[in-house]
């Protein structure tokens, strides 16, 4: 297939995404309006023979201080055929175009899964004192074509970036946790939960925990719980304005793109979460909870409700987003994988983020700057 790359309109980009089974929420046109500190561009790949749009990418440009040079970033994208034997023909025109736009370096996150581990394999790894990392556990599923993609990228001069950790901050997570919903009944999904999860859902029900959907006007209440969580878990919270902008931007593109959930006990909101929807892929995006009333298990009740709603939307996967690959119970992020593995889902490893230095000197300077932050 002979390809041409050019800038496309947001409308063309959105129409292309809507025609796919799913794509990352970081690759919908409205994501550019969430990331207000970046300038953006919508790219399209066209089949020269038919003139058909066959790929798309949202590029975010971050300017270097004092110079008109940019880092070009395609988070969890571009949305192209990553297994195409002529991958070079997709990526070389993109690099040439981004260079012409003043980019000194390109960062992208191919949405290509390399390995999966089911809940049983992870549990076995957790119980083995010799095992400290998820990658030390034998994978349940391996995608051989993903290794080819990595090899091709290396041969083209792309460099594998640092691991994204659990997805806190701007770098996308390499390891995520997902609950497959396709070809399963809700009863089967519920049965897949471990005993503790099922018990906690029942406990929340008995205690009278009610899970409700909120709207834009409820975001200050979300923020209150989120800041409590940030203080407890020692991370820097995003401001309320970020979530307000996210809500307006995403839901003006599609009224069902972003949802807000609260778990309430005796009328008080004690847990909250945001959910994102693109086609058949649904994400639990941000979560928050109070320091008290944890014994009524509001988070388990809320996740179960969100899973049921994702199922009702016809989702093929419910994505609990980032996990660390540490299976060491002394690691501060271990609780995250422990909580998520209780859903009976699976851990997935992506091939990670990749960098292409268009100007080696500026790219190196950025590396030094980022390492000192």
From TrEMBL:
<dbReference type="Pfam" id="PF02388">
    <property type="entry name" value="FemAB"/>
</dbReference>
<dbReference type="GO" id="GO:0071555">
    <property type="term" value="P:cell wall organization"/>
</dbReference>
<dbReference type="InterPro" id="IPR003447">
    <property type="entry name" value="FEMABX"/>
</dbReference>
<keyword id="KW-0808">Transferase</keyword>
<protein>
    <submittedName>
        <fullName>Peptidoglycan bridge formation glycyltransferase FemA/FemB family protein</fullName>
    </submittedName>
</protein>
<keyword id="KW-0573">Peptidoglycan synthesis</keyword>
<dbReference type="GO" id="GO:0016755">
    <property type="term" value="F:aminoacyltransferase activity"/>
</dbReference>
<comment type="similarity">
    <text>Belongs to the FemABX family.</text>
</comment>
<keyword id="KW-0961">Cell wall biogenesis/degradation</keyword>
<keyword id="KW-0012">Acyltransferase</keyword>
<dbReference type="GO" id="GO:0008360">
    <property type="term" value="P:regulation of cell shape"/>
</dbReference>
<dbReference type="InterPro" id="IPR050644">
    <property type="entry name" value="PG_Glycine_Bridge_Synth"/>
</dbReference>
<keyword id="KW-0133">Cell shape</keyword>
<dbReference type="InterPro" id="IPR016181">
    <property type="entry name" value="Acyl_CoA_acyltransferase"/>
</dbReference>
<dbReference type="GO" id="GO:0009252">
    <property type="term" value="P:peptidoglycan biosynthetic process"/>
</dbReference>
């Amino acid at each position: 297939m002979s390809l041409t790359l050019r800038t496309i309109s947001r409308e063309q980009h959105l129409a292309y995404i809507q025609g796919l089974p799913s794509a990352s929420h970081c690759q919908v046109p409205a994501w550019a309006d969430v990331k207000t500190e970046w300038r953006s561009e919508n790219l399209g790949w066209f089949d020269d023979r038919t003139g058909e749009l066959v790929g798309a990418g949202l590029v975010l440009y971050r300017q270097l201080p004092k110079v008109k040079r940019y880092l070009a970033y395609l988070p969890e994208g571009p949305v192209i055929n990553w297994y195409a034997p002529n991958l070079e023909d997709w990526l070389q025109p993109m690099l040439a175009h981004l260079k012409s736009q003043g980019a000194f370096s390109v960062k992208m996150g191919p949405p290509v899964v390399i390995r999966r581990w089911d809940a049983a394999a992870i549990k076995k790894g957790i119980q083995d004192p010799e095992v400290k990392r998820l990658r030390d556990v034998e994978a349940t599923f391996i995608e051989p074509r993903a290794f080819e993609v990595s090899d091709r990228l290396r041969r083209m001069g792309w460099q594998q970036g640092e691991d994204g950790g659990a997805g806190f901050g701007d770098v996308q997570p390499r390891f995520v946790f997902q609950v497959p919903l396709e070809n399963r009944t809700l009863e089967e999904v519920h049965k897949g939960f471990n005993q503790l999860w099922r018990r906690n859902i029942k406990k929340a029900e008995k205690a009278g925990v009610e899970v409700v959907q909120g709207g834009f006007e409820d975001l200050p209440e979300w923020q209150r719980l989120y800041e409590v969580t940030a203080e407890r878990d020692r991370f820097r919270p995003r401001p309320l304005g970020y979530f307000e902008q996210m809500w307006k931007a995403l839901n003006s593109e599609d009224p069902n793109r972003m949802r807000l959930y609260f778990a309430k006990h005796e009328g008080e909101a004690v847990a909250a979460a945001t959910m994102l929807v693109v086609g058949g892929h649904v994400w639990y995006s941000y979560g928050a909870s109070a320091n008290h009333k944890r014994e009524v298990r509001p988070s388990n009740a809320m996740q179960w409700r969100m899973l049921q709603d994702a199922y009702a939307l016809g989702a093929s996967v419910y994505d609990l987003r980032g996990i660390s690959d540490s299976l060491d119970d002394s690691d501060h992020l271990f609780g995250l994988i422990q909580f998520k593995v209780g859903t009976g889902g699976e851990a997935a490893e992506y091939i990670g983020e990749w960098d292409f230095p268009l100007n080696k000197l500026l790219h190196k300077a950025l590396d030094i700057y980022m390492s000192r932050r």
